[in-house]
Specification:
Low-confidence stretches: none
Number of helices: 6
Radius of gyration: 16 Å
Strand order of the largest sheet: 1-2-3-4-5-6
Distance between the termini: 38 Å
Structural class: alpha/beta
Number of domains: 1
Shape: globular
Order of helices and strands: EEEHEHEHHEEEEEEEHEEH
Helix content: 10-25%
CATH architecture: 4-Layer Sandwich
């Protein structure tokens, strides 16, 4: 399986297109610029099967309805953030976007707990990784040796925790208990910036040094 990273919108939020050898794909966090994203999908003759959200902040959801107008595919979100999709005061756009409220239609599939998720030939392990937001989900794809971490873990940094439902200690606990236990060579595909690996963050990330789970 292969992936493409496409930064979208003012915040250059990473949308990911994960593809298989049948030209089917899964979309992660289509945050903005729906026409641009649709053009990429058509150019590569890809058939989307689903949209998976790592969380429901406005910069990760803005192009959902544009995509669904072309392909009638389900959207997955954690239950703790299902109401955020239609509420600018929850998803942050009401505060950060100077009157440009971001709302999208309700999700089709609600994630209520950790476990496995199979969509076509794609098989994910779901990890609840709150701290940046209460319903943050990380999607681990063992076959591709990759985890889609959203705004939980970045190259050399971690997610901010000063937004609604954020909690710094909870975020660090999520990272240490759910992500750093993955194989060291696992590729981390974050919501902003470039890719990294678990071992690189274990060794060099200054925000993770000295944290104790006790």
């Amino acid at each position: 399986m292969k992936w493409m990273r496409i930064p979208l919108g003012l915040l250059q939020t990473n949308a990911y297109i994960l593809t298989n050898d049948k030209n089917e794909c899964i979309l992660f966090d289509p945050g903005d610029e729906g026409e641009k994203l649709i053009e990429v999908l058509r150019k590569h003759q890809l058939t989307p099967l689903a949209i998976l959200l790592t969380h429901a902040h406005f910069d990760h959801i803005g192009a959902i309805d544009d995509v669904r107008k072309v392909w009638n595919i389900p959207v997955y979100v954690h239950e703790k953030e299902q109401k955020w999709l239609g509420d600018p005061s929850l998803n942050g756009s009401g505060h950060f976007m100077n009157g440009k409220n971001v709302t999208v239609e309700e999700a089709d599939e609600i994630i209520r707990e950790e476990g496995s998720l199979t969509i076509g030939s794609f098989q994910f392990s779901l990890f609840e990784t709150p701290g940046h937001s209460p319903g943050s989900i990380s999607y681990y794809l063992e076959e591709a040796n990759a985890v889609f971490s959203g705004d939980v873990l970045f190259k050399g940094s971690i997610g901010r925790t000063d937004l609604l439902g954020g909690n710094h200690e909870e975020l660090l606990k999520s990272i240490h208990e759910k992500l750093l236990v993955l194989p060291e060579e696992t590729i981390v595909l974050p919501g902003h910036g470039s890719e990294t690996t678990i071992i690189e963050e274990m060794e060099t990330n200054p925000f993770l040094n000295g944290f104790s789970l006790s």
